[in-house]
Structure formats: C-alpha cells, structure tokens
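Quick one: co-fold with nicotinamide-adenine-dinucleotide.
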Amino acid sequence: MAEDSRVALVTGAGRGIGLATTRRFLAEGWRVALLDIDGELLGHAMAELAAPDRTLALHCDVSDASAVTAAVRRAGGHFGRLDALVNNAGIAVFKPLLETTPEEWNRVLAVNLTGPFLATLAAAPIMAEGGGGAIVNITSISGLRASTLRAAYGTSKAALAHLTKQQAVELGALNIRVNAVAPGPVDTAMAKAVHTPEIRRDYHDTIPLNRYGLETELAETIVFLCGDRASYITGQVVAVDGGFEATGIGLPTLRAARRNM
Ligand code: NAD
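Sure, here it is.
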C-alpha cells in the first residue's frame, strides 16, 4: 500500500455501520484508524480485517476531550496525514421523556454531540495541514423528525445535524467539507437491542422500500461523501432510509393494499 494513500479516522468502528465503513474505505485503498470505547470489539475488528499495515486501533471514549485529542493526533502521526473523519460513535437511550434521567440525557449528549465536536477540533488542523479533507457526521432519521421515546437521542442527532452545517460554514475556508448521513433503521446490534418484533413490523409498514437498511448501504454513502466524487457537496444531511423520511406518518393500510395489487 502506497505511503501516500488516504487516511480516514472512523469513530465507533468496532462493529455495525462504523466497521462496515472501515471495510469500504479499505476496499477503496484508504488506510483507516479505528476508534472505539470497547477494547474487545476493537480487537475482534482488527483481527477480522487482518490489515495491520493499513489500520490502527485507538481505544478511546469520544466524550473524553483529552483522550480524543491524543487519539486523533496519534492517528495523524502514525499515518502522516488525515483526510477524513467519520463521527459515527453513538448511543441510544429510548425512553419516555419523563423517565429519562439527567444522567442518561447528559451521557447521550456527551457521546452523540460533544464527541463529534471534540473529534473535529482535533482533526481539522491536521486535515488543513494536508490541504483539506472531509468530515461525515452520522445523525439519524430521529434527528429529522420527532418520534416517541427519543427525547435525548433525537435531540442529540438534530443538534448534530445543525453542528454539521456550522462546521461546513466555517471549515470551508480550510477546504474541509462537512456533511451528515442520517440512517433510517439499519440491522445492527444497536437496532437489535432497541427494536422489538412489533417495532420491526411497524418500520416495514412505513418504509417505502419495505425493509431495514444494510450496513454496507450506509458505508457506500459515507465513503462517497468523504471522497473526491463529492468534491462540491458540503453542509448537507443525506437520509439513507429507504424513503422513510419522505413518507411522513404514512397510511399503512393503503400501502399494504398497494402491495397486494
Ligand atoms: P452500534 O451500537 O452497533 O455501534 C456503535 C459503536 O460505537 C460500538 O462499537 C460502540 O462500542 C461504539 N461507541 C459507543 N459509545 C462510544 C464512545 N463513547 N466512544 C467511542 N466509541 C463508542 O451502532 P450502529 O447501529 O452501527 O450505529 C452507528 C451510528 O449510526 C450511531 O451514531 C447511531 O446513532 C447511528 N444510527 C444507527 C441506526 C440503526 O438503526 N442502527 C439508525 C440511525 C442512526
């Protein structure tokens, strides 16, 4: 692998969308720093990727300012450059508003919103030194419209969508593009933990493509936005959701009738 091949840092890369994104970057010739709070997951991911010359494991909590600064600098030093940052690490607490504790609220905001802010502070100067780069923040459909049980999660993702635009406005001067990808339901460990069979059925009913998304489908969009083919795209939130956001509340009965036509 060429010493000058591009470098991405992916947070929450131990599994799910982050690991799928890492695989896509590697397939397109990039080198990747995988950052995750879970050392065991990170170890499994590194073993499975089996690309020690092109990967670097960073065991780190995205909400810890000094740890994030050190981890991002280590990635820049190790590979000699940094071209893309994917702020993917996130946590979901799905609870009624009045049962959400201040501790849960603070933790969700710290990981989902402050994490991307901190990683950007550390990464942007390294990207700028190399002439620019791209940042992709992973938000959610829950940040585009309100839904039940998502007071903390949905608010953190809506705020991250706005942070994306703030970052795009200011970092454009450094030739750094910033976009967000808003997944609909994707069949990852996170979704399995919080989606009951009934919730899964409801999602199928209200998504025009009639299925959950695949991690690889998210990875395609994320890696596209990081690369030169997206060179004039910045400040956007791209929903990768099978049409979920476009449908509003939907009329499941009419949709079911149409499927039977
Ligand atoms: P996941 O739970 O499968 O993976 C998340 C990864 O982030 C894990 O490896 C976890 O260890 C890591 N992580 C968690 N907290 C961290 C922290 N503080 N510091 C560093 N790493 C941390 O989740 P996923 O389904 O792959 O989701 C990835 C992103 O996509 C999240 O931001 C999530 O909110 C978003 N998203 C997912 C879905 C879905 O249906 N799966 C839908 C919309 C948005």
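If it helps, The CA atoms of residues 88 and 127 lie 18 Å apart.
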